[in-house]
Amino acid sequence: ADQNGETLVPTHCCFCGVQCGMYLRVDKGGKVFGVEPRNHDINRMRLCPKGINAYQQVNHPDRLTAPLMRRSRDEEFREASWDEALDFTVSEIRRIQAAHGNDAFGLLGGASLYSEKTYLVGKFGRVALKTRHVDYNGRLCMVSAAGANKLSFGIDRAANPFSDILLTDCLLIAGSNVGECFPVMTQYVWGARDRGASLIVVDPRETAIARTADIHVAIKPGTDSAFFNAVLHVIVAEGLTDESYLAAHTTGWEEVRETVQAYPPSRAAGICGVPEEQIVQVARTFGRAGKAMAFHARGVEHHSQGVENCLSIINLCVATGNLGKPGAGYGTITGQGNGQGGREHGQKSDLLPGGRSIMNEEHRRQICAIWGIEESELPPAGTSMMEMVWQMQRQEIRGLIGICNNPFVSLPNYATVKEGYDALEFHAQFDFFLSETAANGHVVFPVTVWAEDEGVMANTEARVVKHNKAQEPPPGVRTDTWVMCELARRLGVGDKFDFPGSREVFEELRVASAGTVNDYYGITYERLEETGGIMWPCPSTDHPGTPRLFEGGRTYHPDGKVHLQVVEWHAPMDPYTEEYPLSLTTGRTVAHFLSGNQTRRLGALVEQTPRPWVEVHPSHGFRNGDPVRVVTRRGSEVFPALVTEAIRPDTVFIPYHWPVPTAANALTIDALDPRSKIPEYKVCAARIEAAARI
Ligand code: SF4
């Protein structure tokens, strides 16, 4: 403490996958009241507007400080005691499961939770609720990249640390508004540029990062894999592949090479709406670079062909031998704070801790031994988040607990989502603010914010970092861990949930991940505090971690090869017609985070960006601020126009952080990628028309 009794608690920002280090300022009364920069390896003192303002949520007047409860949606919420809210929840779980089976109750987690809590969500769902229906909101985020990573590499994380960006000769960024969504990551881009690296940006919008690129390719939404197949076509035609690398380290290259023959630039230019010469220019720039890296985010992944899109970029990197070397590699830029860690420990419907498959007998045996349950007691794989909503509509799922998510804003096709949640006989949410989704439930459990508990997150680089507790929670508030353990105790399985806090959960998580490619065994809280972060896999407590995943030819499929996958492009799921001739695409803006439940309450961020808008090209004849109705097959809403040449004439863009009546996701389509089950947020058919008023 300084002379004023104030202390600085080292921790990390909660708001995106960069995971910038920061200090929270704590007053002599033990309350968080500010933020200081921290010279952490990731961010070197820098923070973006979200990071600077994040502390304001900790003691925000909107915090929930007592459980809210009502027995029917016709009633108003009233404050309840913890005992009453917990007992009501347990009685509803028992009633619904006795009448309709265990799978009639579902659990949805989130990827902004600490990894300990994501581990506990998976265990709580399978062991306490005994249901197959466990999934999480990372299903709306990085699952296409995860699917592609597993197929190609047998491991699901970025190949390189951020610092490798500084060493590259060519950086390709596809479908990522880095400057607004991951602002502090741009320091690495500028560092590479200072060394003379080329920058290629592929994005339908001229984002801030695109404006600075050597080549900005403004492809039509939903055409990514056609574009990257064509780039690879040119790379093959011009002899820019690394044949010795391909022969030694890969399978499937012949089939991929054969497939891309059908994607000459002349064909792809028509599909993607870009000049043929630009495809050739990208191929030559990337293919001739000594060391090249490719990063992508939701712009590539949020598609009914999201896995294929990611695979087409992996094919490009591997075919040019850009893997396993300093300054050469590949990665997805994770969106949520724990977007990487949140998908590793078993809250996904098909996964168990350590990235194990719930369909694999050996993996099931291993986890049952750790959890102390019979193999017959472990439920099979469930369905994905959006599919669970459809099951709610059909009343196959009748009860639900949601933790750290806000589907009323974040899921596509709001009308369907509302209908699904309204059909639930019982719905509880854990949250620290009354989100739009929580406000529709029967019980709301008030839980801690990130600064009131300790735990780990894994950032975009798969660097596991430790968040520290900066203040005691307000009276009446509990940790998500405590609530899950208490519910488990009341459901009769308390002996399997004897976790006083995050540390004890982390110890079980370490053991549960040991021996997998996702190995955390060598990571301890003490080591994280000493080092500032360790990149997994880290199999022993004297192992330094693995910053560069494929260094020295290391691979993770049992045959020691990278498995290249054939990719064929197909048209997006929502067809264009005369009535719906435009593409609607959606995304984020710098001041807000995901569903906005947190950032729409923070003064400076609201002042910066108080409301959404629709970006339209000047050719449509609107002026800035004109009310524009955006119409899709799901509905219509009115937004003020932001007229800009930074968007294609055939495309409109809306940021999605707001609820109805200005919700981009009231308009988006709930079509899913068949493999990753990610929704097609980034393209649907639309039209725009002048509206009377907003
Ligand atoms: Fe937080 Fe991400 Fe901004 Fe860093 S870049 S301060 S982690 S929101």
UniProtKB/TrEMBL annotation:
Chain positions covered by the region annotation Disordered: 336-355
PROSITE patterns: 4FE4S_MOW_BIS_MGD, MOLYBDOPTERIN_PROK_1
Pfam families in the cross-refs: Molybdop_Fe4S4, Molybdopterin, Molydop_binding
GO MF terms held by the record: 4 iron, 4 sulfur cluster binding; metal ion binding; molybdopterin cofactor binding; NADH dehydrogenase activity
Record-level GO BP terms: respiratory electron transport chain
Stored SMART domains: Molybdop_Fe4S4
Keywords: 4Fe-4S, Iron, Iron-sulfur, Metal-binding
Official protein name in the record: Assimilatory nitrate reductase catalytic subunit
Organism encoding this protein: Streptomyces xanthophaeus
Gene behind the chain: nasC
